[in-house]
Design a protein that fits this description.
The complex is a heterodimer of chains A (127) and B (478). Chain A is α+β, with helices and mostly antiparallel strands and 127 residues long. Chain A contains four helices and nine strands; from the N terminus they run βββαβββββααβα. The chains are: A alpha+beta (127), B alpha/beta (478).
Chain lengths: 127, 478
């Protein structure tokens, strides 16, 4: 399982990469592995507002549908439309398959470092 | 195997339908331009086709079917016999009520008995199945708040272990969902519930026993918290089999419920349906119940509608024949038999759990109700064998696998519900199979990734099936 050190993470299994004032958001390697093969992705539209702690989209795997939680409050600047057609990209390369880019951020979750998130994920995997 | 269309040969037919001797009166412009693509086959072909299909299926008539949360109990044949009586089948929903008094009496009796079992005061048999019953129940909750001018109640509280249909139904009715986390013991987290319940709470949806197979001991406290906030309590009848005749949702504080007659009350389901998801409620919600309801008058049974009803949710009286099957079932069991069935369902689940817990890790150790959840997280970690691999391997032993990857709060979940209709001998055989599969997972885990090897279909490509489903036959000729 990969947890790139340059990214930030949250306990609901999303990763965040800051590009200036914009947060690029995706789901972690652990999350994609736990979900299994993804078959559908639902994303918001550019211009939509997202709220910290609330779902901004969902991913459907052969096992289940799961919400994807926003780690920030802000406005969607761009979405990764490629994922809508090719959700398997998330399984193939979770840290390249970003979901949304969010700007006008007014609130952020307390982020975990790669190290802290890895420990958290390992703990969760053990049950 | 061949599809029925692939067996088709132009000009072939069977004598089941007589030649049409009625003149075609459709105006020229309204007629089909092309013939319908119907398979042209002989009676022999049809018969063999369906026999071949039947051989590839697996149901409770074939063997053990522990599909957790689905209550795949045996469906007594006598239920079919009564439902096939001509007085129930050779009738029309629009014929005068004085000519269908027997059928109305059956509906009235069913309402009385299912209300008795659940502690409700009225019931509609219109909903076609479980999720439809949920939808109807939530419509009642919405109508109730609206009738009081209480328009700010827009939120439905749903525990994170709930069936996916709960939030989906609430969303269909226009409510916003608030997720309530489970406490470590698998029950509702009371503190989180108290925080979430408030003046915007329309209601709470709950199963009890819950989705991890535990009876929530705080149930009276839970329904009290919701009632004190001004919300109503909805009981999802999915797990009623564990408590029917023993404890009643109405006494636990629930205001509205649905039942799955095709689970708890032995009507066929899982492709053998149709289902039936009656919606029951307490007195104060009866004015909102959908559809026509049977009333006993001096001169016999009549149909009447509530003036403030939420409206019809299905045509006529729902899946009437299914109601007849379940009415037969409950009358055959009798008052003591209903409770005995529930107790045996709980006994069978605990027996299996105890006989497996030294190998398989249980998500919630202790006494379970009618089903239990195994957590294969550790097994997967150690051997690479997942819940999916174990489920697929069970197919090779001729039993239906348990429900997998549900509830979602247990990651490698296998949910086992043996039901009361399995004998101790069957359970012992199945326990031996589960133990054998565990041994193989430890010793030859790699092989289990290939399972099943004996089933007619090996591992379907679920990703492709979901992304690019082939659901229509492509005809080669025009």
């Amino acid at each position: 399982m990969q947890y790139p050190a340059e990214l930030k993470y949250v306990k609901s299994h999303e990763w965040i990469r800051m590009e200036g004032d914009t947060a690029v958001i995706g789901i972690s390697d652990y999350a994609q592995d736990a979900l299994g093969d993804l078959v559908f992705v639902n994303l918001p539209e550019a211009g939509d507002s997202v709220t910290l702690g609330e779902a901004f989209g969902d991913v459907e795997s052969v096992k289940a549908v799961s919400d994807v939680i926003s780690p920030v409050t802000g406005v969607v600047k761009e979405i990764n439309e490629d994922l809508l057609e090719n959700p398997q990209r998330i399984n193939e390369a979770p840290y390249e398959a970003w979901f949304i880019k969010v700007g006008e951020i007014t609130e952020e979750e307390e982020y975990l470092t790669a190290e802290a998130y890895e420990a958290f994920a390992a703990e969760e995997a053990e049950g | 195997m061949k599809l029925i269309f692939e067996r088709s040969k132009r000009g072939r037919g069977c004598s089941i339908l007589p030649e049409c001797d009625v003149p075609v009166v459709l105006p020229e412009g309204d007629r089909r331009e092309r013939e319908l693509h119907l398979p042209q086959v002989s009676e022999t072909d049809v018969s063999r086709h369906y026999t071949e299909l039947a051989k590839q299926t697996y149901g409770v008539n074939d063997g053990f079917y522990p599909l957790g949360s689905c209550t795949m109990k045996y469906n007594p044949k006598v239920d079919e016999e009564t439902a096939a009586l001509s007085g129930f089948t050779e009738i029309h929903p629009l014929q005068p009520v004085h000519t269908v008094q027997g059928s109305l009496a059956a509906l009235a009796k069913a309402e009385e008995l299912f209300c008795e079992v659940t502690g409700m005061d009225g019931m509609s048999f219109q909903p076609a199945a479980g999720a439809h019953g949920e939808f109807t129940g939530l419509l009642l909750i919405k109508a109730y708040h609206k009738s009081r001018g209480d328009l700010k109640r827009t939120k439905i509280l749903v525990p994170d272990s709930a069936h996916g249909t709960n939030p989906a139904s609430a969303s269909m009715v226009g409510f916003t969902i608030v997720n309530i986390p489970s406490a470590p013991d698998g029950g509702v987290d009371l503190k989180a519930l108290k925080q979430a319940a408030g003046e915007d709470t329309a209601g709470l949806m709950l199963t009890n026993p819950n989705t991890v197979g535990l009876f929530d001991r705080n149930i009276l406290e839970i329904t009290k918290i919701v009632h004190e906030s001004g919300g109503l309590c909805y009981y999802d009848g999915a797990n009623l089999n564990a408590v029917m005749g023993v404890a009643r949702p109405g006494d636990m504080g629930f205001d509205v419920i649905h039942l799955n007659l095709h689970k708890t009350f032995a009507a066929p389901h899982g492709g053998g349906g149709p289902g039936s998801g009656p919606c029951g409620c307490k007195d104060f919600l009866i004015p909102f119940l959908p559809g026509p309801r049977v009333k006993q008058a001096e001169d016999g049974y009549r149909m009447s509608r509530m003036e403030t009803s939420v409206g019809d949710v299905k045509a006529f009286y729902g899946n009437f024949a299914v109601v007849v099957k379940s009415l037969t079932y409950i009358l055959m069991l009798g008052k003591e038999g209903v409770a005995e069935a529930a107790c045996n369902a709980v006994l069978n689940a605990n027996y299996m759990m105890r006989k497996l817990e030294d190998l398989y890790e249980m998500a919630y150790p202790g006494t379970c109700m009618h089903e239990f959840v195994m957590d294969l997280g550790k097994l997967k970690h150690e051997t690479g064998v997942s819940a999916l691999d174990v489920a697929k391997t069970l197919l090779d032993y001729g039993i239906h696998p348990p429900t997998m990857y549900f509830p979602l709060i247990v990651h490698e979940a296998l949910m086992v519900e043996p039901t009361e209709t399995e004998s101790r001998e069957t359970l012992d055989t199945v326990i031996a199979i589960f133990r054998e599969v565990y041994r193989r997972a430890k010793e030859e885990g790699e092989k289990l990734h290939q399972s099943p090897v004996k089933a007619p279909i090996r591992r379907p490509d679920e990703v492709q099936a979901a992304r690019k489903p082939v659901i229509r036959y492509e005809f080669t000729e025009a």
